[in-house]
Design goal:
With 277 residues, the protein is an alpha+beta fold. The protein is 44% helix and 19% strand. The protein contains twelve helices and nine strands. Strand 2 and strand 3 form a beta hairpin.
């Protein structure tokens, strides 16, 4: 799998990420991240390295080759950590690939043998730590519209990072994010968009596993590199989605549909760029 270890670098992706207070981790993991900070890894700027374990099909399985890393935030003197847990995320994706993939030839990409191997390793993860969950969800070539339910326009930040790259992010507390999901679910269930409420409920249940003092971030990440400044500046998807939900709750169905269709069309156009690449 010569190219798989480089997917993170070449495929534009966005992330929905939870940052948990460092003191909320179990003692052993807390000590690990404290050492990580002391050793200066927080300032790491090099790209991650991965080891490739060949599989029986076209793809193998990757894992960190230089130790586990994390995204770090320090806000008002408090340290928040979002572990990458790359191995766990890769195994979860492989185990669920056939069920979620629209490819008719999914078996040519990941064999049944490799999916079984991934499930076995996932079970070993769970036995060691029943509460181990990924701290981030990643989407290629788009931001899933349901993610915007967790944020408001005032949570939005568009600025240059320390490397001069434009970055768009939303950030809020986990309590606010969960409350917004709770408000959206009944509105959607009373409409033709009922199935979307199940996806939002899944997000809510995922968030509920973390410490109540955690933060939630929607990071457009490397997706920003394929969008112009004007496209990013004009993108108000969280605001538009909540406007659509408020119109839906008020019974203004045509207005709600128009706003929602505008958000769908915007992201459909972004996703279409995958074909050109």
């Amino acid at each position: 799998m010569a190219g798989a270890a480089r997917l993170r670098d070449v495929v534009p992706t966005a992330s929905l990420r939870v940052y948990q207070p460092i003191e909320a981790f179990e003692r052993d993991e807390q000590l690990h991240w404290e050492r990580y900070l002391v050793e200066g890894n927080r300032a790491r700027t090099v790209r991650p390295r991965y080891a490739d374990r060949p599989g029986s099909g076209a793809l193998g399985m990757i894992s960190p080759a230089d130790g586990e890393h994390a995204e770090i935030r320090v806000i008002d003197g408090r340290t928040y950590v979002s572990p990458w847990r790359v191995r766990l995320r890769v195994l979860t994706a492989i185990a669920g690939f056939a069920e979620s993939s629209e490819l008719e030839l999914a078996e040519q990409y990941i064999s049944k043998k490799d999916r079984k191997r991934a499930r076995r390793e996932l079970r070993r993860f769970r036995r060691r730590d029943a509460e181990m969950l990924p701290f981030a969800h990643v989407a290629a070539w788009h931001v899933p519209i349901r993610w915007f339910v967790l944020f408001r326009d005032e949570d939005r930040s568009l600025e240059e990072d320390r490397n001069g790259r434009v970055r768009l992010r939303y950030g809020t507390t986990i309590r606010r994010a969960m409350r917004r999901a709770e408000q959206a679910i009944p509105v959607l269930r009373r409409s033709e968009l009922g199935p979307i409420s199940d996806l939002i409920l899944d997000m809510h249940q995922w968030l509920a596993t973390f410490d109540p003092g955690s933060l939630v971030e929607l990071d457009y990440g490397s997706l920003c590199d394929v969008l112009s400044w004007d496209e990013l500046d004009d993108d108000r998807s969280a605001r538009d989605l909540h406007d659509a939900l408020e119109a839906l709750e008020a019974g203004e169905f045509p207005r709600s549909a128009d706003i929602y269709q505008g958000v769908l069309s915007r992201w459909a156009e972004v996703r279409s760029r995958e074909v050109m690449n």
